[in-house]
TrEMBL record:
Its main location: membrane. The gene is cobD. One of its GO terms (cellular component) is plasma membrane. GO terms for biological process: cobalamin biosynthetic process. Converts cobyric acid to cobinamide by the addition of aminopropanol on the F carboxylic group. The chain crosses the membrane at residues 56-73, 85-109, 155-174, 297-318. It is a multi-pass membrane protein. The keyword Transmembrane helix applies. GO terms for molecular function: ABC-type vitamin B12 transporter activity; threonine-phosphate decarboxylase activity. PANTHER family: COBALAMIN BIOSYNTHESIS PROTEIN CBIB. This is Cobalamin biosynthesis protein CobD. Pathway: Cofactor biosynthesis; adenosylcobalamin biosynthesis. The lineage of its organism: Bacteria, Pseudomonadati, Pseudomonadota, Gammaproteobacteria, Oceanospirillales. It is found in: Cell membrane.
Length: 323
């Protein structure tokens, strides 16, 4: 039951404190990653093969040591449930962004509903990479709703998945890899080759949890619409993991998303997401996406508790010990 206790502790800490405003370990990791990238990445001058090898070496140098350290630490504290709870709960807390994600969503929905477009644009610019200066009400709401759905997987459910699968080193491996993808995974001249390894590894680590998240969205929303959107639209999306998550999520809350958006000054035509005859994005759809994330989190916690309990009872029965 240590796993369940760690999960509940992490969620409680996140509920009470959100992400640490200062001295978050990922800030230091990001600074180190930026320094290392400047040392090893020469952009287009690297060439395709050399650039990819440099990126892979950089990924290994910065992700490998902390992951191995936590493998060692987890083995060291294996005999102490108290230390497992303390370290495991703390590391999972630092890896998830549940309340931070919801806070960002509500910080957009509130001014948007009140017609304060400048405030809404400023708030949405904090969580999306697209240009936000000229976005109208529907475009702001669409960007925010898509971000809530996609980051529900990245910031919460994938981290929980890897913690359940590989414990403390698993969640460390996932969070650091996901952070590098966010920093190096751009398809521009500087990062196209160097960031290739970070992007592909993140795709691999997210492959199963993204689909579990999409299925969970469907189960906790409008299931028929969600499954249809997932089946018809996910393959059209450029990201192999964001497609299922956002298509299923859009269907689950019955909102029409996707479409054209401007990234780094260039207009990109993106495939549709969700029912195309459904309501368009609004402040309401942002709140509905946040509520969907909360329902799915409740589902995951319940399933994990039941799964761990059944496993424990089965183990006890197998030893012949009566309760």
């Amino acid at each position: 039951m240590v796993l369940v206790s760690c999960l509940l502790l992490a969620l409680l800490l996140d509920l009470l404190f959100q992400e640490p405003a200062r001295y978050h370990p990922l800030v230091g990791f990001g600074n180190l990653a930026s320094w290392l990238e400047k040392q090893l990445n020469t952009g287009a001058a690297n060439g395709r093969i050399k650039g990819r090898i440099s990126g892979l070496v950089a990924w290994g140098l910065i992700v490998g040591p902390p992951t191995l350290f936590f493998f060692w630490l987890e083995a060291l504290i294996a005999e102490s449930e108290a230390l497992q709870l303390l370290v495991g709960g703390l590391m999972l807390y630092l890896a998830i962004g549940w309340q931070s994600l919801l806070s960002h969503g509500l910080a957009i929905a509130k001014p948007l509903a009140a017609g304060r477009m400048v405030d809404a644009r400023q708030a949405v610019s904090m969580i999306v990479s697209r240009d936000t200066r000229e976005l109208d009400e529907q475009a702001i709401a669409g960007a925010a709703t898509e971000s809530m759905l996609e980051n529900g997987s990245d910031a919460i459910f994938s981290a929980i998945f890897w913690f359940c699968l590989l414990g403390i080193p698993g969640v460390v491996l996932y969070r650091l890899s996901n952070t590098l993808d966010a920093m190096w995974g751009y398809k521009n001249e500087r990062f196209l080759q160097f960031g290739w390894a970070a992007a592909r590894i993140d795709d691999l680590l997210n492959f199963i949890p993204a689909r579990l998240t999409a299925l969970s969205y469907a189960l906790m929303g409008q299931t028929r619409i969600s499954l249809a959107a997932w089946r018809q639209q996910a393959g059209n999306w450029k990201s192999p993991n964001a497609g299922p998550v956002m298509a299923a999520g859009a269907g689950a809350i019955n909102v029409s998303l996707g479409g054209a958006a401007i990234y780094h000054g260039q207009l990109q035509e993106r495939p549709p997401l969700g029912p195309q005859d459904g309501p368009t994005a609004s402040a309401k759809s942002i709140r509905e996406a946040c509520a969907l994330v909360n329902r799915v989190l409740l589902l995951w916690v319940g399933v994990i508790i039941v799964g761990v309990s059944v496993t424990a009872l089965t183990a006890v029965s197998a030893t012949g010990v009566s309760l």
